[in-house]
From TrEMBL:
Pfam name, any one: RabGAP-TBC
Alphabetical UniProt keywords: Coiled coil, GTPase activation
Biased composition regions of type Polar residues, renumbered to the chain: 70-89
Domain Rab-GAP TBC positions: 123-308
PANTHER family registered for this protein in UniProt: RAB GTPASE-ACTIVATING PROTEIN 1-LIKE, RAB-GAP TBC DOMAIN-CONTAINING PROTEIN
Coiled-coil boundaries: 372-416
GO molecular function, a single term: small GTPase binding
SUPFAM superfamilies on file: Ypt/Rab-GAP domain of gyp1p
Protein name, UniProt field: Rab-GAP TBC domain-containing protein
Region described as Disordered: 58-89
PROSITE patterns, per database record: TBC_RABGAP
InterPro entries the record matches: Rab-GAP-TBC_dom, Rab-GAP_TBC_sf, Rab_GAP_TBC_domain
């Protein structure tokens, strides 16, 4: 995808309005026939993606590059899927119709709606994703949306850092790779606007990846509104604060989950001195947008916007389950390289399986709350110990200063003592000389008297 896709907004129970994210095109109403056509096109795209993913899987198993293409293999895979295409297209049309009904009647929907949950877990249709994301996080009602243009006219203390990091955000993606491109300008604008809106957080490295994914699915102003909602309502703001206290809590909770659900892998990580923060920090900070291929990152955001932060824990465990056998064979260096290089392609093999696996992961809300309390207790104890440590360090510093002063005084006294001893020795020597001279004079006096007599 080299540009911003189209986005939709609801108007009534039977129609959808589609708007373009890049320009101000007039609104067009989609009839039921056109909606069915869009569903068919979407399903055809999905089938093509399925073929390509299956081909990549075959190539990886045979030792070839994932980027190479083999038309004969594509034809074989397509033939295998051709029998189910008609049924898939019918299901695709049904899914689009259901999504249309849900969107048009969104104000009457509840997040506890099982139909909505199942649809989100199967993946939001690409051309509806930007709009559904906004609805899931209630971005249309975001109070700061209307201030976006005002923020752009102001200056931010974070501008230099934001500009430096923009070039590192999806550098190989057509929408972002060119300097001064719409993608880079959009990234800068949204990050700058948020740094002005929330000066306490300002700009946090890594958040640009999340904003980049939003910009690929909606215009700047909408991306700003969604990002603001994510920060305020989905625990991300606490994650991005300078202390990153929330990130520490999430890492602690995930480590406890790994210890309980994957004890063998946990022990292996411990034996290699491979800490949870070494692989999971970016997962929480960027919601996997910097770690996984974009089409999987979209699925992650689908789940996150519906279920919240618990889905990041579930997906983390699912990835570790998926890669467990590989990870158990690796040392520290291999683990570092695996999570960076091989894990994304492993997840790309079957995204639906990964999502189904994460949904099945055991997640106990009560236990997570207890872990949060335990963490706070541990941190409070650490804080007390830190205060005590600082007090002891202060006392130690004062004692060191006192010792240094005493040593200085001792050195001065030693110098004085040595000088006194030298002086006394010199006086004794002078006294000896004087006595000797006096004896000589007395001898001379005695001799003089004898001569006079």
């Amino acid at each position: 995808m080299s540009g911003i896709p189209q986005n939709s907004v609801p108007i009534n129970n039977n129609e959808l309005i589609v708007t373009n994210g890049n320009n101000n095109c007039p609104h067009s109403v989609l009839s039921d026939e056109e909606l069915k056509l869009l569903a068919k096109l979407e399903e055809q795209n999905r089938i093509i993606e399925t073929d390509v993913k299956a081909l990549n899987s075959l190539q990886s198993n045979s030792g070839h590059s994932r980027r190479s293409s083999d038309t004969s293999q594509v034809s074989e895979i397509s033939q295998m899927n051709s029998e189910s295409n008609d049924q898939d297209l019918s299901n695709g049309r049904d899914v689009w119709q259901i999504w249309g009904q849900l969107i048009n009647d969104w104000n009457n929907q509840s997040k506890k709606n099982k139909t909505l949950q199942e649809l989100v877990r199967k993946g939001i249709p690409h051309h509806l994703r930007g709009m559904v994301w906004q609805l899931l996080c209630n971005a249309p009602n975001c109070s700061v949306r209307d201030q976006y243009s005002d923020f752009l006219r102001q200056s931010s203390v974070c501008e230099k850092v934001i500009k430096r990091d923009i070039a590192r955000t999806y550098p190989e993606h057509d929408f972002f790779k060119e300097k001064g491109s719409p993608g880079q300008e959009g990234l800068f604008n949204v990050m700058k606007a948020y740094s002005i809106h929330d000066s306490e957080v300002g700009y946090c490295q890594g958040s640009a990846f999340l904003v980049g994914v939003l910009l690929l699915n909606m215009p700047e102003e909408d991306a700003f509104a969604v990002f603001t909602c994510l920060m305020q309502d989905y625990r991300l703001r606490e994650m991005y604060k300078p202390t990153m206290a929330e990130l520490g809590l999430c890492i602690y909770q995930l480590e406890c989950m790994v210890q309980e659900l994957l004890p063998e892998l946990y022990m292996h990580f411990q034996s290699q001195n491979y800490h949870t923060s070494m692989y999971a920090s970016s997962w929480f900070l960027t919601l996997f947008t910097s770690c996984l291929p974009l089409h999987i990152a979209y699925r992650v955001l689908d789940l996150f916007l519906y279920d919240g932060i618990e889905m990041i824990f579930r997906i983390s465990i699912a990835i570790l389950l998926l890669c467990k056998e590989d990870l158990l064979r690796l040392d520290m260096e291999g683990l570092l390289r695996y999570f960076q290089k091989e894990m994304p392609s492993k997840c790309e093999t079957d995204p639906d399986y990964l999502v189904n696996l994460c949904v099945q992961v055991k997640y106990d809300q009560k236990k997570m709350k207890k872990l949060a309390k335990d963490y706070q207790t541990v941190k409070a104890k650490e804080q007390e110990e830190l205060v005590e440590l600082r007090r002891l360090r202060t006392e130690n510093r004062l004692l060191r200063q006192r010792i240094e002063n005493l040593e200085h005084e001792s050195a001065e006294l030693a110098d004085k003592l040595i000088q006194g001893q030298v002086c006394r020795a010199q006086e004794a020597e002078d006294n000896f000389v004087i006595k000797r001279e006096l004896a000589a004079i007395r001898q001379q006096e005695l001799e003089a008297k004898n001569e006079l007599e």
